[in-house]
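ok here's the first one, seq then struct tokens
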Amino acid sequence: METTTSRTGEESTAGRRTAGAGAPAGAVEGYLRADFPWYGLDGTHRGPRWLMQVGAGADGTVDHGSTGHGDPPSRNLEVKGARRFTAVVTVARRPERRSADDTGHLEATSVSSAAWLAGSGLLAGTWPTGIDHTLRQKWLDQQTALAWELADDLDGPAWASLTLPVDGRPTPFHYRESEYGWVLAGSAGGVHLGAYGRGMSAYGLGFSVIEDITAYAH
């Protein structure tokens, strides 16, 4: 059976390994295994920074991950709805290739990969707290399918153009807003970049390479 993906280059959800935010000591190890640079907000952001999660294939190769900025995650639903944060998604540039178990192939990563990860990340971090828990999964499935479609149509009417500094250089991004927050995606520095947030305007942001990813682990 052939296994493919048009977003992240991962073989399947089951084959993905993650290291979560605020979680286990040692979560930074997944970030340290990456063969590409991690990006975050630049030095103009003075607030908290934290690790979120990395995504890796069945062979352990790290393909993408996210870093958080602003208000950290909370299990308190009232706090969750009022959070001000920005998450930055870094996706390795990968060509089309065979899967680790040699049963199929993985499509090349692209800006759409970053857009999809950012869009689904926004949903996971901002779902409506007032929705009944029995309907929550249905809502998430519907919105995730929409995020997938939008990531496949970056030149469509849902997206606008936004130029932001990356390592001090003006860089074009695809940008969209929704009632839950905003999403953007582009490419820079040999990787694909995505970001999403709520309560923090995207228009004043800048991105840069993270010189010491372990600083996000504290």
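and now the second one, same deal
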Amino acid sequence: MKPTITYEEIIAAKKNKMIGFVDVRSPKEHSFSTIPGAVNIPVLDDETRATVGILYVNGQVEEAKQYGVDWAASQLPNMYTHYQKLLDQYDELVIFCSRGGMRSNSIFSLLKAMGLPVSRLSGGYKAYRHYINEHLNTELTKAAFITLYGLSGSGKTEILKELSRKGANILDLEGCANHRGSMLGSIGLSEPHSQKAFESLLFEASQGWKEGEVVFTEGESKRIGNVVIPSSLFSAIKEGKKFYIDAPLELRVAQIHRDYVKEDNQKELSDSLGALKAFINEDRVNLFQEQVMSGDVDLVIESLLVSYYDPRYNHHKSQRDLTLVSLDAIETADRILEWQKESEQK
């Protein structure tokens, strides 16, 4: 590849090569949002970057440069080893920083001089974001969506995963958001994704979709945790076909137990239930918290489903093109694909 390459050129090159991304920004910048799959090998860590910034603000430009160079120099052996290991997985590496400036250029020049197959992303992460903003709506709305609706715990996410395993296109909105969508949807998960990270993952998921091709997704509110579904995508989903997944209460309780209850997370569950006091009688929530701490989690799940969640979401049942009673995600996925095949033959 060229020494400096645009993101559009990278997309074309990825059809024939395994290309890896290296984010040389600080860990804090990287954790907030990055190019999906990028590995963080920072030129400056968070503390050093902050110190360099203060020196610059105070007009101590040369001191700032020297401070940064000294820290980076101490990390070079580890950096080089890390790059070498990455090249065992990829044909070439693309390095980027915020704007394609000093940080990416310095490490790129060094690695290039050592003969490593590296390129630098033109314009850095800022240019990447510009590309995503420019193309996201077009990429996301070329699909014909079939959306799975259903009450909490009906196994919609598991069915999506089975559809994917069987070769169907899916859009896992909750996975892209790293949040399950409900008020308690972050339990047991790492930090929810930022809006920028969410949009990047949506774009990544859409790569390979063809115009008018069926993509399965799960019905969500416009907001999922901290992020908002782009309006164009939300409208495209609403305009598509709607499948309602019906499942017995006992299976739904078991599914939610698998999703939310982990070893030794009773305290997290109990604390999270406190947020429901704005919507449910406080004494009842206190009882739920006591039951969770005593191990009666399934009683709490069933009560919340019947008295709180089901009445809020049951309206989707009347807005469907097909209703499927699901006792098993694999079998339900097979039935959905069979319906799709028959529909295409008509």
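notes on #2: Residues 141-345 form a domain with the Rossmann fold fold (CATH 3.40.50.300). The CA atoms of residues 93 and 118 lie 5 Å apart.
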